[in-house]
Amino acid sequence: MATTYNWNCKTVDVHPTEGEYSDVVYNVHWIVTGTSDEVDTQGNPYSVTNIGTQSLSTSDITDFTPISEVTNEEVVEWTKAAMGEEKVENIESSIQDSINLLINPTSVTMTIGD
User: Fold this and answer.
1) Which stretches in the chain have pLDDT values below 70?
2) Cα separation of 45 and 73, whole Å?
3) In the chain, where do the E strands start and end?
């Protein structure tokens, strides 16, 4: 089983001005969706989403990119760097664990008759 992780970091908070720069990204609202290559009985892939925020340091801006030129891929890189490898792995591992429980549940809810 393989899981693909999609990082959406398109929503950001910015400081309107910071020093000589405008619209400086300082906080990222991230959405990570893991999609398994395994499918349920209706043929839909198993999928789990996790959301959160990550603050970014703006104390040492060395290579400023204007907000109009910033891409999701670039913000994903900034976000993952700010989180650190261990936190990124924990997020993706948590998503994988949730997908595994969807595929092989350890508990189900049932309704009994009268």
Assistant:
1) none
2) 24
3) 3-18, 21-39, 45-55
